[in-house]
Amino acid sequence: MEKKHQMHNLIILDESGSMISIKETIIRGFNELNDKSYIYSYV
Fold first, then answer.
1. Cα–Cα distance, 32 to 38 (Å, whole number)
2. Is 0.70 surpassed by the pTM of this model?
3. How many CB atoms lie within 10 A of CB 37?
């Protein structure tokens, strides 16, 4: 039997606005992580 790997993500939303300067970087990184986890789940 092949061992399956699991990935768990913890998403913390910052309502204070203190992270607004890196908003686009965070979104881009999150999207890249999702794309990779989707690919790896079917390999």
1. 10
2. no
3. 13
In tens, the pLDDT along 1-43 reads 677 777 777 778 778 989 889 989 988 888 888 777 655 554 4
C-alpha span between 25 and 29 (Å, rounded):
6
Distance CA 33, CA 9 (A): 10
- State how far the Cα of 40 lies from the Cα of 32, in Å rounded to an integer: 12
What lies within 8 Å, CB to CB, of 19 at 6+ separation is: 26
> Alpha-carbon distance 26 to 19, whole Å?
9
Three-class SS state of 27: helix
